[in-house]
Amino acid sequence: MTQKNRSVLLGAAFLMATSAVGPGFLTQTTVFTQQLAASFGFVILVSVILDIGVQLNVWRVIAVSERRAQDIANLVLPGLGAFISFLIVLGGLAFNIGNVGGAGLGFNVLLGISPETGAILAAAMAVAVFLVREAGKVMDRFAQVMGFLMILLIVYVAIISEPPLGEAVTKTFLPDEVDMLAIVTLVGGTVGGYITFAGGHRLLDAGIKGKESLQQVNTSAVMGIGVASVIRILLFLAAFGVVSKGLVLDAANPPASVFQLAAGEVGYKLFGVVMLSAAVTSIVGSAYTSVSFIKSFSSSIRKYENWVIIGFILVSTAIFVTIGQPVRLLILAGALNGLILPLTLAIILVAAYKPGIMGTYRHPPLLAVFGVLVVLVMAFLSGYTLLQQLPKLFSY
């Protein structure tokens, strides 16, 4: 494997992982730890297994077919690619507004400036990535550096909080309770929406494709889930250390509360760095992947891809700064985003067995079984969640 390929594989893995680790990821992990305590370890374990199954299915089909997900969908059923592209861009835009807001909060914690001003600074950082000539390489390196920074800081807080490791390990395999909704939420939060395709599309753009590249694709996919899972496990341990001492987290900002209760004012500032890192990398990943879903439909978008990505970031920032977080859009897009994973994964599984798309490739049966399981479970629970959220949409 060449140094260039190694860098791209690592970059794709970190792009996927840091796209997943946004403000919602931090809050979600902390809240579930508060609710389930040590048994949350079991939820993480099951979700990691399912996440790997999802990523391997998706990335392998993208690599072998040498096509992006929307182009594969159009071959399965004409017009389907445009439909899932619409869903993913809508979800990506809505959640990018949340990412921009999270980055603004990170700057607010660090520098005391308003979240709106912080959001503009964070957007400028993300835009800078796409202003350079070799934006792909810069994006890969940026995701790696910020990912490692998050891991180091969360390791420190996890050590300081002194979690009962024995209990955490025991309950990971013998939980007191099994929360299916938590498992689905984690799977959707780690490989849902645009996140599923972030690394796969990045590898395709970098020229890593075809059956001969499958081993590299597998490595990068597992690595991506591994990085996201390490961050989640460390955050779980940090939060569990705080919760196990009987300390109460601030409902308004649970992850900040974990850092502050574990390490005082220093911990609170570290949370600012982690939140900023998580949010800015998610802004980059969301914008890049969302635009990758529409560039197949226009030669102009392909030609000016970086400028379209920059526009995507600026629109997200403008909406946050001028309107704040548009609650109705976020609720609807959040519910729709939950449906994207079973829909797109089902399309990928159908495509995996179409010779016109995959040639002589034979998809591993075990991966297909994993995929079907995730499609059925996520479709049922996401549909239920959507029905629950629709009344709220019209109550604001």
Automatic annotation (TrEMBL):
Protein name: Mn2+ and Fe2+ transporters of the NRAMP family
Subcellular location: Membrane
Species assigned in the record: Pontibacter chinhatensis
Residues of the signal peptide: none
Keywords of the record: Membrane, Transmembrane, Transmembrane helix
Topology class, membrane: Multi-pass membrane protein
Highest taxon, organism lineage: Bacteria
Single GO molecular function: cadmium ion transmembrane transporter activity
Main location as per UniProt: membrane
Sequence intervals crossing the membrane: 36-54, 75-97, 109-130, 142-160, 180-200, 221-243, 270-294, 306-323, 329-353, 365-387
GO process terms (BP): iron ion transmembrane transport
Pfam families: Nramp (PF01566)
Cellular component GO terms, alphabetical: plasma membrane
